[in-house]
Specification:
single chain; 117 residues; alpha+beta; Aspartate Aminotransferase, domain 1; six-stranded antiparallel β-sheet; 4 helices; DNA-binding; YjbR-like_sf
Length: 117
Amino acid sequence: MMIENLQELCKQLPGVTESIKWGHDLCFCVAEKMFLVVGLDKTPTSASFKVDKEEFEEMCNRPGFIPAPYMARYKWVMVDDLNRMQAQEWEQRVRKSYDLIAGKLPKKVRKEIGLEV
């Protein structure tokens, strides 16, 4: 998976913005809340995203996956190489992380970005 593929995938979701934070992390946000962080400062490229609390431990037991630094208590995992997951799993994980974050937004904000009718 290439960073450009992740950008394209994220930009298809309603209300998504991207920015560089901390000088080297490409962050994808919905209503200013991060749902995917791609580390641009290392090779191979790493990424962090939110998962269900039920799948957190299972994900962290996979080779190359660890609890995301500073975010593990919120059930975020980090993968050390984007290529550890195929495109289809990336699509599922990005969408799930987005849904988990967007689902916690206030109804008014969800409506503003087109998630509520």
